[in-house]
Amino acid sequence: MKLYNFTPAANALRVEMFLNEKSINLETIQVNVREDELFKEPYKSMNPFNCVPFLELEDGTIITETISICRYIEEKYPDPVLFGSNAKERALIDMWNRRIELDGFLPLLHSVRNKTSFFKGKVIPGTRNEICQSPEIVTRGIEMFKVLLDRIDPHLSKNKFISGDSLSIADITGHFMFNLSKILKIDLVEKYENASRWKLELENRPSNPINNLI
């Protein structure tokens, strides 16, 4: 297997932390997103969505999308379990991962892309076009993040991690949601005792690849 990556990207870091939790080292090829290498061959044909990360299997199959890559790796290397070990656990972890992605991670990701000057002309991942950055999307993303914190803080008062006592893919998504909030210079989480505790727990894990970027 070969993993095509660009380490600073939020989704690339999600996969990297997932691999670190499993102590897996994959052959990794860094694709220079800043110089638009994804729009050049052979990457353009391999992944027409022009985003990282993507995984190339031994038979040439290409798997894109962060969670799809992690699910495949979980099937190949099930220990430690990060997607759940039975039907109930898998459903709950999937539920929390979707909630965090849809109400926190993705809204903040689009906030970053609509606020940061680097993403001018790149507001939609994997594109280069004239779609304008929107301050309204930035504001809405931050407000959605706040609503999510209001909902998960009470839940975290009774759970070490978002889906129980063990770390899962949903926590990894949560960690990079918080990292996006840092890029936006949002300190909302400090107002939430339980979410702050969870955030600190994730930041201090040895698997956290952001520590290697500092």
What does this structure look like?
The chain has a four-stranded mixed β-sheet, with helices on one face. The protein is of the alpha+beta class and 214 residues long. The longest helix is centred in the middle third of the chain and has 29 residues, at 87-115. The model has no long low-confidence stretch (mean pLDDT 96). α4 (87-115) runs parallel beside α6 and α5 packs across α7. Helices cover 49% and strands 7% of the residues. It folds into two domains: 2-76, Glutaredoxin (3-Layer(aba) Sandwich), CATH 3.40.30.10; 87-209, Glutathione S-transferase Yfyf (Class Pi), Chain A, domain 2. It has seven helices and four strands.
Keywords:
about 210 residues, alpha+beta, Glutaredoxin, Glutathione S-transferase Yfyf (Class Pi), Chain A, domain 2, 2 domains, four-stranded mixed sheet, 7 helices, 4 strands, about 50% helix, about 5% strand, globular
TL;DR of this structure?
With 214 residues, the protein is of the alpha+beta class.
The CATH top-level class label of the largest domain: Mainly Alpha
Distance between the termini: 28 Å
Summarize the main sheet. Answer: 4 strands, mixed
Contiguous low-pLDDT stretches (5 residues minimum) are none
Examine the secondary-structure arrangement and name the CATH architecture of the largest domain.
Answer: Up-down Bundle
Q: Reading side by side through the largest sheet, how are the strands ordered?
A: 2-1-3-4
Instruction: Note the run of SSEs as H and E.
Output: EHEHEEHHHHH
Shape: globular
Structural class: alpha+beta
Tell me the count of domains: 2
DSSP strand content: 5-15%
- Give the overall average pLDDT: 96
Taking Cα atoms only, what radius of gyration do you get, to the nearest Å? 17 Å
The level of helicity is: 40-55%
User: Using DSSP, what is the number of strands?
Assistant: 4
